[in-house]
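Our preliminary data section would be incomplete without showing what the modeling component actually yields. Below, a chain of 364 amino acids is followed by its predicted structure, encoded as tokens that our downstream tools consume directly.
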Amino acid sequence: MRSLSFLICFVGIIFLLVGCNGKSKNQEGQFEVVKIKGSEYSIANLSDFVENPEMIKLETNDSCLISGITHLEVTTKYVFISDRANLFQFDRKGKFIKKIGREGHGPHEHQGILCFTVSAKDERIFIGDLGKILCFDFNGGFIEEIVEYKLFDCIYACNDELWAFFTEFAKTNDGKFENRTKVNQYSLKGGTLKNSILLKSIKLDSPHVNFVRNIQYVSETSTQRYIYTPVQFDPINRDTLYSINDSLLTPNIKLDFSDLAVINGKAKNIQIININRNERYLFAEYVYKGKSRLFIYDFLNSNQYNLTEEFNDNVFGTGNAMLRPVDSKFDLMYFKKEGYELVGKVEGVTENSNPVIFMVEFKK
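Predicted structure:
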């Protein structure tokens, strides 16, 4: 496995060059810097960006009561949804099929669902639990487990591999602590550890291991895979999306928040949660002075949109909408609304209904 320590120094040099020239070459072509106009905010109608809208009213009964969606994945036939305790399988019309796995402390059971991912090609579902990853088929049958005494932030099925992201800390020789963000790469079938890549290392005065839900880590286009690794307590703004090839990270695009990211001591105004992209757009979900923001960059015409109030949903008529990726390779996004938010807006939905899923494709 190639060490990435030299890359950290290399990236630092690139950032200095970019500061002088605006752009710098990397192995793939252009390392682009996007300067965000922090004082300019946009109001964006959903219809200006998306097409092929799909609404999925999830069936509601005593067997599938959802207490807050934490993650969602779809295939051509199914919708898989997790809350903190269960993983539910619905069809694309919203009809409940079954729960995948079972909560408990016994064999093949999980104590809670930290994260999950689906491989549609192999019809496998992976559930990340404390200390292990459980694998099931689409009929709910148990296949195998990967035993790892780690707290996984995110797991992601890609091609014939399962990527599992986690953070850990270790004490260094100078008495400080080092927070490390890593990804373990397992074989999709068999669960054999193939590689472990150090994505980020930060020295701290005291030990911290952060676990944050809804971190995406990975996004894809038809030709390239990308990684963004935030650290919540890091005083430095981690603002660069990397491409990854054969364990090597290469800077792809940097977001310059200089108008907003004013650091006072160790406090910073900007906290970036996710950066991901599809074929045409880059999306950055961030927090500015305690308020959620969404930044969108259009690679086709270099337009940028800095949203303060999410999208205006003029497609389904549900109010404001915060879009999240379902499958960046196919430009598929979704947002969700609780039943009580849709009373009088969507036929048949009551205050006690399960959430409704709204999926859209971004225009090419």
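The helical segments are 5-21. The longest helix spans residues 5-21. Preliminary results of this kind motivate Aim 1 of the renewal.
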